[in-house]
Structure formats: structure tokens, C-alpha cells
Fold protein-glutamine gamma-glutamyltransferase.
Amino acid sequence: VFPESSLKVTGVDFLKSQNTRQHHTDGYNIQSLVVRRGQPFQVQVSLSRELRAADKLTLRFGIGENPMKNNGSLLSLKPEREDFNGWKISMVERKGKECLLSVTSSPNAPVGKYNLHVKTGSNIYRPENGVIYLLFNPWCEDDVVYMANDAEKEEYVLNDTGTIYVGSAYSIYDRPWNFGQFEEFILDACMYLLDKSKLSLAQRRDPAHVSRAMSALVNANDDSGVLLGNWSGNYVSGTSPMDWIGSVMILQKYYKTKKPVRYGQCWVFAGVLNTVMRCLGVPCRCVSTFDAAHDTEENLRVDVYLNDKGEKLNSLSFDSVWNFHVWNDAWMKRTDIPNGFSGWQAIDSTPQEQSQGRFQCGPCPVKAVREGDVYLPYDAKFVYAEVNADRVYWVVKKVNGKDKYFKVGTETQAIGKNISTKAVGQNRRVDITKEYKYPEGSKEERMSMQRAYSFLRPSGLMPRSGYASTIRTIGANAEPLVPKEPVTKTGLHLEIANTEPLHPGNPLEMAITVKISAPGNWTVDLIGSCQLQYYTGNVQANLGTIKETITLEGPSEMQIPLKIAPDAYMKTLSSVEDEVLILVTAIAEVKETNDKLTKETSMRFQYPPITVQMPETASLYNDFNCAFIFKNKLNVTLENCKLLVEGLGIFKMTTFELGDIMPGRIMKSEIVCTPTRLGEKKIVAKLISNQIKGISAEKGIFITE
């Protein structure tokens, strides 16, 4: 008997356009097939002859350097056989020499790059470009990242543009950010990070392990990851954190050089981590917290030191309150902790504090922060402190040549305000503070706080600055923690606001309002100071102080003006590389009762806008013009202006050098755009100069067939 002519494979078609449409992966700018786990995809196999009953046809999927069956890195699948590690394969139809096969991966398969080989008898066929990228699947009910709501998946997985909220609690503003998870090389950069993370195959199944590893790899600390953090104000040897408008350039550059990209600050870390998580298929959002506590050493307290003019002192304290801090929430079911803590998990790639020996943070269940279950992994104590610490003010005075510390105020509701993220499907801010905290003063808040305190060790109210800890000038009796604002005998209350728009080049006109609600005649000593500070709370310049004694007949209020001339701040404004905020601090003391109160407010400068002019719609591959118009309405020249623009699916990041723009001058830059992708697209613009770091604008356009 002659042996049958042996069966050979002559080709494999990955049916890319139909598979990627069904898997919501048609956006990825990559040659290979990208699919999501737990969902069927089809491949068409062409054979040298018709398939017969005795023929053996096997699809082999291998992941990693050296795939082996015994550790699950090599999957060998035969049509209509029992499943293998949760994977299944079936014959959809046979037509002559063509076989249409359907492959369903396991909903908890390891994510990564798989190689496909087809084995027929003793022949092995290796298709060219036989790489399949397998991602997490929020559309699959059995995947732990499953998200039921379609609009939410559209936003948190598929939206490649967004907004990061920055500024201060007093003046929140939005910074457009291009995530660009579908752009060229971004998926490959994420796969490189996965390989670099040294996660085991089992850990690659679990978004909790993957998101923790990515929070470590997005910063360059201890693993030469993507971005080097720099808060020094000196960025000559790299790109200033203010100059990025998206993650694409950063990840592409990192993938090309395999070296950390310089430089990032918190919103850049969060923007890049958001790109990485969305790219891998984990729903993710950027979360901004205003007045976020840093480095409280788990004692839930931040100490602020003031001199006797009411100016904040930098050097005394390790802990600090950042005007804002941005991290991410990733969506998943947690299988490693008790039930009830699934949903949003906080992850943070800004390198602040080591966790298990590496600069990584999370995933921390947002519900654990709200309920006070701070013992749950990972890093719940740290995240809890960021949004729940108390702020204590101390005045440092020289007494007989020694520093003495006087407590002038405690704020228990000042930290972790206005927690914000972009709304689903809309360009507006939505406040998610209630997901992180119960309402201040509610019964639930008190219970949550008691619970958290039983796992943390808050110290008594002692100042703990660098050298204050060695000088015990205040009685060592620890005061109990009071979960409410101290009530003053006179109902003393302070408000700080600007009375005129805060335009660079103009005088800064602000006012401190002193209110007293108790009847009677009261004498109030007021000191106020104005400083420029970075968003990390680091003071850059002292601009001026006031000192007044006022008499009030309660109940009444009085407004005390605080005015700073342009000369006092313009030099600092032009010389710093970062955006600075205006910090006003006021200390009031009622002479008759010794009531003391301290209040601080940070405000940002206000800038003229950039206008983007372009059509509302355009059609695929048809050019259109886009113009960026800026009028300098300030009465100072803006020096060394550059305009950064980017439109994903329309044009690559472009920089216009505009030189100096005199007061009243209008500049116009134009770019010809060629849309290469359908749907709602966005163009982002940002203007940077010596004086101003953050004017941005965005505009949407709808691209049709």
C-alpha cells in the first residue's frame, strides 16, 4: 500500500478585518492580529489537499522564549477535542482544501504575544507574521476585567484622548492629554514592558499583578522603566514635564531607545500608565486629587511650618501637601482578597514611596479606602493617608535663641478634596470624591475612620520636622485625634479670594475676609503672606506680607486687601521651568479669647485662550486646514513661545517655534491635516513660553467615509 500523500498547510489567513472588528481591536496600528481573551476568533487554513478522517490537524499557540506544554506556555489544540487549559477550537466549515476554524482562548489566559504554528502529521507550518497579541477582555463576562456598561468601555478602554485635571482646589483646570494606545509601536512597547516585568505566566493572567508591575515600570526608579521623574525645576538635559501633550512620543521613544525618557511629573506618569492599561485591555481612568497628602509616615498628619510673617517654610518638613496629585483607577474583580472589594482599584506610577522594595503602588481597592479597610493589599494605608490626612499649622518663633513651635490651626477636612476624573462620553469633570470617602461628618465616615485608625498608628500632635523632632518644646502629652474642625469661641472664619483676574504682568489683587459670628467687640490680629509655589507645595518665592490689627463688632466681617506689584513676581515667573501657583496664607488671632485660625488657598494665573479653527467634519484621506490663533492679551511680552500640536489619526506631534509675542500681537499657525481614521478625533494644542507654561486647547472633528 502506498502511503497517502502527506497533508501540508499552504497558508493561514488571520481574517484580520473581521476578527479585529468583533474584538474591538481594529484601532491598533499594527500588522499582526490583536484579539481579546475568552472570545472566539477565526482563522482560515489552506491545505495541500482535502482533509480526511484520519488526518491530524493541530494548532499550536506558544508564548515566551521556550514554550512548553507542562508549564502552560504551549497550547496544542485539535478541532472538536476537549479543551486544553480552557482554550477550545472548532471547525466552522470545510470547503475543498480550505478549513475555517474558530479559536476561543481561555477568559483567564495569560496576556501577551503568542506564536501560531499549524501541525499536520509530522509537518509544521509557520505562517509569516504568525504572531497573535492576546489582551484582557472587558467585553467577556468571564474575564475579571469585565465591564457591563458599553459607554464606560468606550471611554475607559477605547478612548485614546482625554483630560487630566490639575491646578488647585480653588481653581481646577483641565489639561488635554492624548493617550494614543492604538498608535504605532505602543502595543509593542507595552509587550516589552510585560516581558521586562518578569511576571510569571500565572501572574500574567491577573490584572492585579499586571497593573502593579506596570505601576513600577512606568517610572524609571529601580528598573530603568519608561519615565524619569524630576521636580527640581531644571530640565535642560531632557524635556520639561510641562512640554508633553500625550503619551505617544514618550512610549515610542522609550521603545526605540529602551532607556528612561526625561522627564515626568505626576500627570505625565498617570497619562502614560493610563495608556499602558488601556492598551492591554484593562479599563482605566486618570484620577486627580486636590490637596493630596504626601509622606505622612502613616501618622495621617501633615505639618506645615510658617515663620512669624505667615510665610510657609520649605526646609522644615519631609511631608507635604501637593496642590494636586494624579494617579489612576483600573477596573477589575479582585480574586486575591475577600469579596466586596472589586471594581475600581487605585494604581500610581509616580515614584513616591517604596512598596515591597520597589517604587510601585496598588492596586488598592477604592472601596477599601472608603470603608477604612486599609490592611488590604496593596498600599491601602498609603492611599488612605493621601486623601484623609489632617493638616496642622505651626508657627516657628525664636525664643531665647531657640526655635519654638506654636500650633496655630488644625484642619481635618482639607486633604483629599474634589477627587476628579473625566466624565464618560463627555468633555467635563466629574467629582468622584464619594467613591473614595463618605461625606464629611457622616456616621459612616466616623466608623470608617475608626476602622482605619485601628490599623494605622497616628501619633499625637507633635511637630515632626527634620530637627523639630529632637526639640521637645511642646508638652509631650499626645492630644487625641479630633475628627472634626476645632470650634472657636468667636466663630472666627477666614476666606481668601482674588478680587481681579490673576493675569501675569498685572498686579495680583486678592483679599482676606475675616468673619466673626459671636456678638461683641473683638480685636483680631491678622497676618497674611503671598508666595509662589510649585504644585508639590515647594515655595519658589516670597512676594509680600501684610500685618494688621482690626476691630470687629460681631457678627460681622471685614475684607483686607493684599496686593502684589508685577515687579515682585515677574522675574521668578520667567525663570522657573514649571507652572507655579499663587499661595496665600492667613493667620488670625482673636486677642480677647486667644482663638487662632490658619487658612491657605492656592490660585493659578489666568491666561488668554488659544482658538482652534477647522471644519466640524472631514472625510477619510481628504486634506483639511487647521489654524491655531493666539492673541497676547497680557501686558507683558511672552518670550520664546512654542506651540505644540497633535491630532491622533490626523497628524503627528508638531512644534511651531514662535519666538517672542508682544502684548496685543496675534499669531496664527496653520497645518494641513490628513485624517487616516474614522470617527470622533481630537486636535490638541499647547502654548509654552518663559512666562507661561500651560495654555492648552482642544477641538473635536468627526471623520466620515
